[in-house]
């Protein structure tokens, strides 16, 4: 349900002499994480989203939420790896704090991931390994070229079909649906105010502009992802599609990537033998439902990994756009009364810990907020 706010020219939402007020436009991944962190530090936070608390309009809801700094750095700048590795220690702490407050557990694992290729595509895997080792020579101990017997220990069902692959020991995933839900509980428990089904037209210093009213805050944060495009013209969308399947005949513990000359399939496990299968990457801002072509490619590649997927049922098919800047790196722009964070591209779960911590630091420094909190 939408929280009702008074209809006037400028509504001083939550203005208080005790704590600074923060308005957040966009309650997807970044918006929720920032709200959670700011509320913990004593700020008063109001979130606005065009969708509901279920995050059905966010890229965050669609994501496979793999934490894959090694796999991703092959086609990204080294920074993505360094920032992304920070996530591996940041998430457990935040998830523990969330669980303590909400009583809800969010699945998180960093038991490694497996990269495989069919015999005919072995060169794709070899290239991938070379490029990876060149990018992160200092982390070679976490990149293991494995034979069938080691694969049989790590993922026994894959060893029936593959004679080896790569084991990336530090990679993992988290359960995005559980996280987004836990954040709702955590934010609500800390007194965060939700304005659901509320379209934000613009965000300026200290103001969140709706069609007929403005809401005033000490600081306004724009974390609308693709929805901020009008105010961030360089932002582009990179379409991605995922399928969720339930596969009772498959037991994979870790994320798996299949190297292929045309596409890279990944399989990210969820509880109850559910798997998120992704993801296409298309330079298009179309939000249309998943196409037949993508479904065919994803599902046939999936079946080639493990025949047990033949009897799987398709639970969901989701498409969304990843918000990306021209260099595919995040932006954190801060000025008095305003913070804009965006451009997480295909690395939202991987890079949000770094982005959130950096953004909070900038926001507090730039707005001289620190001294008035928790005193
Ligand atoms: C198919 C796919 C797979 C992915 N897989 C991974 C992965 O495995 N690992 C990983 O790290 N990342 C992954 N990502 C990337 C990740 O999902 C995004 O980087 C991340 O969600 C971006 O977070 P955000 O908060 O900026 O945007 P979002 O999560 O999209 O949130 C933006 C929010 O703003 C709201 N909003 C927008 N416009 C308005 C408006 N005008 N008024 C009010 N509200 C508005 C939206 O409703 C939404 O809730 C994937 C993305 C996709 C699409």
From TrEMBL:
InterPro entries: FAD-dep_OxRdtase, FAD/NAD-bd_sf, Gly_oxidase_ThiO. It comes from the Bacteria. Pathway: Cofactor biosynthesis; thiamine diphosphate biosynthesis. It comes from Zhongshania aliphaticivorans. GO terms for biological process: thiamine biosynthetic process; thiamine diphosphate biosynthetic process. Its EC number is 1.4.3.19. This is Glycine oxidase. Keywords: Oxidoreductase, Thiamine biosynthesis. One of its GO terms (cellular component) is cytoplasm. Pfam families: DAO (PF01266). GO terms for molecular function: flavin adenine dinucleotide binding; glycine oxidase activity. Residues 24-354 form the FAD dependent oxidoreductase domain.
